[in-house]
Amino acid sequence: MQSNRSRDTKPELLLRRALHARGLRYRVCTNPLPDLRMKADIVFRPARVAVEVRGCFWHGCPEHHRKPTANSEYWTAKIGRNMARDRKNEELLRSAGWLLITVWEHEDPIAAATHVAELVRRRRSVDTNGAC
């Protein structure tokens, strides 16, 4: 498990490159909220948008996750805890006015970047229009 990266994974790098090419600037692997024990992969602070790039195995992807055969009791419990933690973090962010976007590792990074860019720009325009 030591060789599994927690940041700068291939899907994350592809998404970041696509977002950067669209002119978006962001923070990488940072806490959206100071008291939340969670680091989001990509954070747009002014727009209050956090992006999580999740691995299908580690986070129990509804499409691609398959139950491990070796040591299945341990892994089932571990992945269940990961999924519960993900739900809890999403709820805490939502209650603080943040939007959490989940991008799965199997998703097309170009399509995901387009979706993220649209949501970030929409939230920025709402903030700008709301302040007038």
Secondary structure tally: strands? 4
Radius of gyration, taken over Cα atoms and rounded to an integer in Å: 16 Å
What proportion strand? 15-25%
N-to-C CA distance? 50 Å
Task: Estimate the mean pLDDT confidence.
Answer: 91
Topology order in helix (H) and strand (E) letters: HEEEHHEH
Helix content: 40-55%
Structural class designation:
alpha+beta
Low-pLDDT segments, ≥5 res: none
Cα shape: globular
Sheet having the most strands: 4 strands, mixed
Reading side by side through the largest sheet, how are the strands ordered?
1-2-3-4
Number of distinct helices? 4
Written overview of the protein:
This protein has 132 residues and is an alpha+beta fold. The chain contains 4 helices and 4 strands; from the N terminus they run αβββααβα. It has a 4-stranded mixed sheet, sandwiched between helices. Helix 1 crosses helix 4. The chain starts with 9 loop residues before the first helix and ends with a helix. The mean pLDDT is 91.
